[in-house]
């Protein structure tokens, strides 16, 4: 992921910079923030990082995304300035993509037939209609690949990255929306990962895992765009109902 130098969460630095701009009057209440493209150039970060920052600002009640218009300032200060938003879904998924690609490559050289049998079973469970069963199988599939490396630190890291998605309020906000969209590609993508492991191909396993998690990032971008569309549509419907009542 592109980003500025220094520690700390990138999206949080952007949030604080924009909050300061709003407080200093650079952006007044009702004003539109710069376009996503301009913000990526200003802060030298990726689109997902800017999107993460906008979601965080929305959760703080400071901005609102409007379809076809951009992001607008709602308040001059946060109603919940001390709220810990923690790590976002984009950050977590990008970190997983970097780590789990290499984990899959190592696993391809170490995995046993018994572990492959377990992965086949988990892949079948991912196709269940029960969302909780499918999501748990997805989690265990990734952790099982880490277990195939035989490295306790790697196993712990992959497990922590996965569970971090549900400990972070910001990540939960996006992932809750993501769960409402179709996941028709999930089986095929995990199937490619499994096939690469069965072939004991580190290169194919790495690429299949990285491609899968890159697709997850694209999916999260689609989710946040869809959410803005749905809000705009709801607002339009509400205005139409109000006009209908007035015309009676």
Name the features.
single chain, 248 residues, mainly alpha, two-stranded antiparallel ribbon, 3% strand, elongated, disordered N terminus, transcription regulation, Tscrpt_reg_HTH_GntR, DNA-binding, GntR_C
Give a quick summary of the entry.
With 248 residues, the chain is mainly alpha-helical.
Question: Care to describe what's here?
Answer:
This is FadR family transcriptional regulator. InterPro entries: GntR_C (IPR011711), TF_FadR/GntR_C (IPR008920), Tscrpt_reg_HTH_GntR (IPR000524), WH-like_DNA-bd_sf (IPR036388), WH_DNA-bd_sf (IPR036390). Residues 8-76 form the HTH gntR-type domain. The structure is a single chain. The protein is mainly alpha-helical and 248 residues long. The protein contains 10 helices and 2 strands; from the N terminus they run H-H-H-E-E-H-H-H-H-H-H-H. The protein has a two-stranded antiparallel sheet. The protein is elongated and about 65 Å long. The chain starts with 9 loop residues before the first helix and ends with a helix.
SSE diagram, text form:
Blueprint: H1 10-23, H2 36-43, H3 47-59, E1 63-66, E2 70-73, H4 89-110, H5 113-125, H6 131-147, H7 152-167, H8 169-178, H9 186-198, H10 202-246
